[in-house]
Design goal:
Elements: H1 2-8, H2 23-42, E1 47-48, E2 53-54, E3 57-63, H3 73-86, E4 90-96, H4 97-107, H5 110-123, E5 127-133, E6 136-139, E7 156-165, E8 174-182, H6 186-202, H7 204-210, E9 214-215, E10 226-227, H8 229-248, E11 252-253, E12 259-261, H9 262-268, H10 270-274, E13 282-286, E14 296-297, E15 303-309, H11 314-322, E16 333-342, E17 358-368, H12 373-391, E18 396-402, H13 410-413, H14 418-434, E19 440-443, E20 452-458, E21 464-473, H15 476-479, E22 484-485, E23 491-492, E24 495-500, H16 505-515, E25 529-533, H17 539-551, E26 556-558, H18 565-574, E27 579-583, H19 585-590, E28 592-597, E29 603-607, H20 608-620
Parallel strand pairs: 11-16, 18-19, 25-26, 25-27
Antiparallel strand pairs: 1-3, 2-3, 3-8, 4-5, 5-6, 7-8, 9-10, 12-15, 13-15, 14-15, 16-17, 17-24, 18-20, 20-21, 21-24, 22-23, 27-28, 28-29
Helix pairs in contact: 2-3, 4-5, 7-16, 12-14
Length: about 625
């Protein structure tokens, strides 16, 4: 596991917005005022909103006297540089509350006055702070640079417009927000812009549309993706990989329902601790068929029952464990399932495949004795590393996610058992130290039932995502009465380890789309090979190649014969097909193919049998590169 630690250490540090005492913060804040001055020059009579620094620059909100478009950005930037060149000093002045509100009134800034009055009334401020640079005056607490000559003239760039409600409230006025990037030096700006443009190119929502991976339909519902044929191939290949790794590691597969009686989730702790993230109950009348039920009796002996869509698979797996008497000789028991779950994510968070309301989770639960916990955790971590090696993933950090005993809402977030929390966290910490894995602490990031180890990946688009997790549960086995018979003949309580190396299909496919920029390796690609004929007279040979490949379970097809060769090749590149086989008169006569690989300039002419053998070896090895014959 030392290699896991080595690669994790290669990850660059990514921090959020700078703090007010940082020089970059002052630069960005001062540039926001310079932007506001330029906007008021270009659109006199406009009204100000907020203009704070953010992690990669700043923004400012305006109620504009006349609309602005991005076509106005060059003129705004020209005016900003002219203001910077003047060397306007930033002067601060604090005024008593009454005088401050009177000044804002004179400035003709109703939104600033509203906010200033709120600060005085609700926070008890006796003074308000103002900053002036040149003719521009703003109610602002600072800080700023001393004068505008300290601002870099070539290290900022206006980047976009957006609508923004005043104070973020949809009942308020819609303002125009101007976003800008800003850094201390031009080289930093250029690097950031290049990375942003690459992130836009790799955005999984864009690639998902272009490559036919998934769709969101309003009639189905937000956050409930429809997997298109190409996306389903990627899902199936990931699931196949997980099943193979789990089979070798001694897991048993199970299949469980998408919903259950509400009472199960009370017992497991999900309703007490996770209710806000669950779909509401479905109430039905159930006769019970003679079985004992917990609901309220209705007419004819029917019972009113409440069912819930499951937010997690674990309660069902606990019931699978409990369905058969278990002995200490049976442990550990490892149960695995790609289980569909449903969570009521906040509408503001739902987007693409990263945050959805219906998801298929690569889930497993390991039931073991206390003495087996460390070995099972280490085995899970090694399985994760094997999966990452296959997928070519190495930009991550390991986080030990703990509970927060000082959280005032802790009783609503965590099982109340301080001794168990302390003991469980000590076990996970020992596992990481014994494996030589560096980790960061994540206070307050634990599951409600126990601590966990999360693998945090940095995406190429700049997001940090938890893609893998392994959790130690000391609570649910007790809540659901899980037992095994020990060597002493007495019932004992197992520990439960929850683990999910591939997160959900949704989040993992989003991550891999961006990681590979849609150009999946051959084994994972929706279409693994496409045959391009130089004219229709060679279509029969092309169809023969396709039939042979499909007979070996290779996803292959013949490009449309009505298109020109150059169009076929361009279309294959657009669809990021990993292997394009060009065939013409020479290839037909010699029983060869000319191979063009996506992203490679060199072409290779191979005997058809040799190509097919190499292709199958590439797929079976899950190689990220084509294994050309030597």
């Amino acid at each position: 596991m030392a290699s896991l630690d080595r690669r994790a250490g290669q990850r660059a540090e990514h921090s959020g917005a700078e703090q007010p005492d940082d020089e970059l913060y002052r630069i960005r804040h001062s540039l926001a005022h310079v932007l506001a001055q330029a906007v008021l020059e270009l659109r006199p009579g406009s009204t100000l909103g907020f203009g704070p620094p953010i992690k990669d620059g700043f923004y400012y909100d305006f109620l504009l006297s006349e609309p602005l478009t991005e076509a106005d950005f060059p003129e705004l930037e020209r005016r900003m540089r002219k203001i910077i060149k003047k060397g306007q000093r930033f002067y601060q002045e604090d005024l008593p509350a009454v005088e401050a509100l009177a000044r804002i009134e004179e400035m003709g800034e109703p939104y600033k006055r509203e906010y200033g009055a709120e600060l005085i009334a609700k926070q008890g401020l006796s003074t308000l702070s103002f900053y002036r640079n040149g003719p521009f005056l703003d109610m602002c607490e600072g800080p700023h640079v001393s004068d505008t000559k300290q601002l870099p003239r070539d290290a900022f760039k206006l980047r976009g417009l957006a609508g923004a409600y005043w104070r973020g409230d949809s009942d308020n006025t819609m303002m125009t927000r101007i976003y800008a990037w800003a850094f201390a030096a031009k080289a930093e700006l250029d690097d950031h812009v290049a990375r942003w443009e690459e992130a836009q190119r790799r955005d999984h929502k864009k690639l998902g549309r272009e490559l036919g991976i998934f769709a969101i339909d309003n009639d189905v519902g937000r956050g409930l993706p429809l997997w298109l044929p190409n996306g389903t191939v990627v899902r199936d290949e990931l699931e196949k990989l997980a099943k193979e790794l789990e089979f070798k590691a001694g897991y048993q597969r199970v299949a469980t329902p998408h919903l259950a009686r509400e009472n199960l989730y009370f017992k497991s702790g999900h309703l007490p601790f996770y209710a806000d993230d669950m779909y509401p109950p479905m109430e039905v009348m159930d006769s019970g068929d003679g079985q004992e039920m917990d609901g309220a009796a209705g007419e004819g002996g029917a019972v009113k029952e409440a069912y819930r869509l499951r937010p997690m698979n674990c309660p069902h797996h606990h019931k699978v464990f409990a369905a058969i008497p278990r002995s200490y000789r049976d442990l550990p028991v490892r149960l695995a399932e790609y289980g569909q779950v449903y969570r009521w994510e906040d509408s503001g968070a739902v987007g693409g495949l990263v945050r959805v309301r219906g998801m298929c989770m690569n889930d497993a639960h390991i039931y073991c004795t206390e003495a087996q916990i460390k070995d099972e955790f280490k085995a899970v971590m090694r399985l994760y590393e094997e999966a990452y090696d296959i997928l070519g993933l190495d930009d991550y950090v390991v986080r030990l996610s703990r509970w927060d005993p000082d959280d005032p809402k802790g009783r609503d977030k965590y099982v109340d058992n301080p001794e168990a929390w302390t003991a469980s966290e000590a076990i996970l910490e020992a596992v990481l130290k014994e494996m030589g894995v560096n980790y960061v602490d994540g206070i307050g990031e634990a599951a409600f039932y126990g601590p966990k180890i999360d693998i945090q990946f940095l995406t190429v688009t700049g997001r940090e995502e938890s893609l893998s997790t392994v959790q130690l549960d000391f609570s649910q086995p007790e809540a659901l009465g899980l037992t095994y018979v020990g060597a002493d003949g007495q019932p004992h309580r197992p520990y439960c380890i929850h683990r999910a190396p591939f997160s959900t299909h949704e989040r993992m496919v989003a991550f891999l789309l961006e990681h590979y920029a849609g150009a999946f390796p051959t084994w994972l690609a929706p279409l693994q090979a496409q045959v391009v004929t130089v004219s229709e007279q060679f279509d029969a040979y092309g169809a023969e190649i396709v039939a042979a490949l499909r007979g070996s379970m290779v996803r292959a097809e013949l490009a449309p014969s009505t298109d020109t060769v150059s169009k076929k090749i361009r279309q294959a590149a657009t669809l990021k097909i990993p292997n394009v086989l060009i065939v013409g008169e020479r290839e037909q006569q010699e029983r060869t193919v000319t191979l063009r690989r996506h992203g490679h300039k060199a072409q290779h002419t191979l005997a058809l049998d040799a190509f097919q053998t190499a292709l199958l070896e590439t797929i079976n090895a899950r190689s990220r590169e084509f294994l050309l014959p030597s």
